[in-house]
Amino acid sequence: YDANNQLVVSEALIEKPQEAADLQVLTTEDRELFTEDMAGWRGIAMDRSTQPLQVETSDEVPNTIVISAKGEPLRDAFLRAGDGSLTAGGVYALDIVGMKPIRLAGDVLVGKDESGIVDALYQEIKNQSPSRAWIGDSIDFSLLEEEYRFTISVDGDDNYVTFRRAKDDAGNLLPTGSFEIDGPSNLTIAVKFDETNTELGRIVVTLPKTVGPTAPYVSLSNGAILGLSDNPTSRLIGSGVDLDNIASDLPLELRVGLGDEVPQVISIAQIPGSDSSGLRWEIINDRLVFEADDARIRILPETAIQRDNAAKLGFFGTDLEVSVLENEYGFKELKLVTSVDGETQFANTDASVSRIGTTVRFFDRLPEDLIIAVDAKIGSSARSLTTRFPDPVERKDPILGNIAVKIIDGSKLAIIDSESDSTVAIRDYIVGEPVQYLGLTFTLQSPLRSGDVYNIKWDGSRTGDNRNIVALTQLQNSQMFGDRRGSFQDIYAATSAKLGNTSQSATTDMDIAGKAASDLQSAYDSKTGVSLDKEASDLIRYQQAYQAAAQVVMAARTMFDTILKVF
Predict the structure, then answer these.
(1) Tens of pLDDT along 393-405?
(2) Considering the entire predicted model, what is its pTM?
(3) Could you report how far apart the first and last alpha carbons of the chain are, in Å?
């Protein structure tokens, strides 16, 4: 009703998803490929869910949960149902014990995938976390020089800071200034001036909000003249508290650690107040602020009561270690670890609603093109599909898995995936003629009977075709020894020619050397050798001469014998 008590009709968001649509996976032969009994076929996984946030409890790490998100496959955050009312495109509700409930909906979701939604949830958790600040001593800014440089180190990361005093139009220095920061820690530095003396002030260094009980290590150098000692006063600032609402709950016990000392349980009996450990607290701008000199402040609850007391005082999530990790599929997830004993179910996502119906994931190389269709429900509004690929995409040739051929009757057969025992194709056949399926060709010979099953298995160590000889012939022109070194044929021809030239040259050299050797032998023999023909002729001549001499002797002997006989 308006101010005039008139009924005003307005639209409201109905945070209830419509009946989710299902995805269908079909082959190009219009055969539905993926059904409930085909789970795991070719590495396909199908999830049906309308819950966009899922919580998994870790059995290996105590007090640990992992939260994953399913992205909304919608271009707009909200759609109109058939009756014209607004329907939720997606609401991501995360209720963590000890923190305010977190809700993501509307424009904050537009264009975000699973990882983007996880980042947004993480940012919302950080926004509730306490902030930390370090405060310097009070100094008179009117006495400072024009420029100072100092360094602030946060957990080992150096941040280089330059302070420059402001000037008026005449160039005179003013008791104010500005800070320039060069470093990775996203620091914020400001000056808090005294309310009664505007020339006196304290430098306040504020760190970004972070989740977790671990306080960063901060050290400063060259900042003493600006009131910044090596161990400045530290502050832990809550997210806001209504003192009137918690006054009846006091005292509240907290477990607090200062610096590296063992944490102690303290009692917050009144605000403002202090503790014998040196911890002080007060309300500043509706926020409870803990303050300590020369010490880091940590709230470390061990029990659910201590955690809840910290949340009442505005220190949300002090029992949590929250991180963003990447799962095996490349999507981000939230990992939450609590320090409270026995708290394994400390986050709830039941208030999340979604229009998501089916998610299909492919983990294997598919041997064929597939059709992905949306089976929208009657009366539902428009649906849309989103597809995501890993980056970069690793391209691989498809491999046909093991199949079985089952004879249906005298003219039809079924091709069955052996792994899932699912029929993936129906073929007509004629005995003795080839049947084809995804590049595979086989022929059936008679006799055939209905119910006969023939198994065809993939064996990477066998080929059964001419691919080896084809690969071998391709070596002829391949650059197997490197670019610009010639093909196999070029190198073979060059090597053969080189061997032929070398062989011919060696044969010619051998002939020349043989002729030279023969000539040398003849010359040698002519000088030192014996002629058999000449020796033979001499031997005959000497023989004849000997025979002639013998005849003379014989004649003389006969003559002497005759003379002797006379006398």
Answers:
(1) 777 777 777 899 9
(2) 0.61
(3) 205
